[in-house]
Amino acid sequence: MSEAPVGDRRPIAVRGWAVFRAMATWLARRGVSPNGISLGGMMSGIAAGGALAATAHLTGLEQRLAWLAAALFIQLRLLANMLDGMVAIECGRASPVGELYNEVPDRVSDAATLIGAGYAAGGDVALGFAAACVALFTAYVRAMGKAAGARNEFCGPMAKQQRMFVVTVIGIFCGLAPADWQPTPEWAAGRGLVTVGLILIMVGGSFTAVRRLLRIATTLRNRST
Fold first, then answer.
1. Domains in the chain: how many in total?
2. 1 in a domain, yes or no?
3. Cα–Cα distance, 197 to 69 (Å, whole number)
């Protein structure tokens, strides 16, 4: 991750926790590259999408394990997303191309996870692709705002952490809850909780993109006066 003003970073409350600061220091002392951490996060995001898609082809315990694996990989991706910046900025290991490694793998992870959710048991393929497009557009708005001279807008209600929280909760629920807690009505044509989550991400993400656009426009107008 490239050097950036502290106030222009994504607000993550747990970044100040001693355990994560110790992890960042440990990684930096062993020469682990922030860009390598970013790539590791991307691989976790892809693995999460693969595990989600696999649930449609598995049953019983194997399916439950796939749901839980997806939730775990999502959290590993988010952990990597936090640690790459901590190692780069707080441990002084920023890279000239860090911003590329910070942004591009994130977009791949978002797309892989949400498209995978579309192919999951109880999912909807079209909604998976649509949710991925909304997530990409939301990030695009933020990036364009920064390029235009505004600060990074990380506001929600469906920013990256919230999108991944929704999918994580679904993964844990489907992995642990009894089967009769996970009804799939006949009228739903095989769609279930994952479809509801994707709709929530689409609607919330669209609102988030509009909200970011308005905030960015206000910032740019105020700077021009």
1. 1
2. no
3. 18
Q: How far is CA 221 from the centre of its chain?
A: 30
Residue 195 confidence (pLDDT): 94
Q: Answer whether residue 34 is part of any domain.
A: yes
Q: Is 129 exposed, middle or buried (0-12, 13-18, 19+ CB in 10 A)?
A: middle
CA nearest to 147, candidates 191, 103, 110, 184: 103
Query: Which residues, at least 6 apart from 99, have a Cβ–Cβ distance to it below 8 Å?
Result: 1, 2
Q: Could you give the count of Cα atoms lying within 13 Å of 178 in the half-sphere of its Cβ?
A: 2
Q: Residues, the chain, total?
A: 225
Closest by CA position to 124, among listed 174, 196, 54: 196
Q: Which residue has the higher pLDDT, 4 or 218?
A: 218
For the beta carbon of residue 42, count every other beta carbon within 10 angstroms: 21
**Element (H or E) spanning 130, and its range?**
helix 125-147
Per the structure, the complete domain to which residue 183 belongs is given by 6-224
- Reported as a single tens digit per residue, the pLDDT across 192-223 is 899 999 999 999 999 999 999 999 999 999 98
Is residue 173 in a domain? Answer: yes
How many angstroms separate the CA atoms of 46 and 213, rounded?
29
List the one residue out of 156, 160, 153 whose CA is nearest residue 111.
160
Residue 4: the pLDDT is: 43
Determine the Cα–Cα distance for residues 136 and 150; give it in Å rounded to an integer.
19
